[in-house]
Amino acid sequence: MKLLYWLLLSAVPLFSQPFSFGIKGGVPFTDFLNATSAGGFAPFTSFVSTTNRYIIGPAAELRLPFGLGVELDALYRHFNYTASGFLVDVTYNSSTTGSAWEFPLMAKYRFRAKIIRPYVDAGVALDWLSRKQNILPGGLTQTITQLVVPTHVTTTTSSSTPIELQHNTVTGFVTGVGVDIHVLLLHVSPEIRYTRWGAQHFLSLNGGLSSDQNQAEFLLGVTF
User: Fold this and answer.
1) Domain residues of the chain, as ranges?
2) Residue 216: CB partners within 8 Å, gap ≥ 6?
3) pTM (predicted TM-score)
4) DSSP string, 5-32
């Protein structure tokens, strides 16, 4: 991903076109995680997840001739889920929090217009879960509390590799439609974007928790 960033920077003098940067944020239409209230088999586990209704991060674009462009974003979102259940004489509760960083790299085409220019874009995306040891905020953490019923002994453990974690990094295909509104030195770009991920970050043994491989969101970009 760093290599792609430096390639974009090095291409600016070559094409003599403006390199714009700014911020992009919005709200998801779909949940990051799907959870059910009851598990299918032992260990019996119920999951509850919360979708934080925001996504935000920096955006950069290399504007090429003929309405073309290449855009790279770094979008942040936070997620959390809880689980509770029992197995024979042990009950347990867990709480998991983390952050996902999405890096879409897209080719863009703007239709001809003076002020408001519709556009379409498409490309590939990488979604990466931040770990506790990384410099990016929101490291993935799961805390499990177990109670042995006969002895009333309670233990608490913490881990950066949740039991339900399948893939720390997933890739997918992304496409979107929007309009570019040019106001003075700013470009304001509302967009609807869809991403199809090729794998799931999370999947529990009983199927009570899973990552949504279909992602839809509304984004608003402001670039200079």
Assistant:
1) 2-98+118-170+203-209
2) 28, 29, 30, 192, 193, 194, 195
3) 0.85
4) HHHHHHHHHHHT--EEEEEEEEEESS-S
Give the other-Cβ count within 10 Å of 157's Cβ.
Answer: 10
Confidence of residue 17 (pLDDT cuts 50, 70, 90): low
- Among the residues of the chain, which ranges form H helices? 2-15
CB 134 within 8 Å of CB 141 = no
Q: What is the pLDDT of residue 152?
A: 87
User: Which residues contact residue 129 at a Cβ distance below 8 angstroms, ignoring those fewer than 6 apart?
Assistant: 98, 99, 100, 101, 140, 165, 168, 169, 201
C-beta separation of 106 from 74 below 8 A: no
Residue 40 is encoded by which pair of tokens? Answer: 């299918």
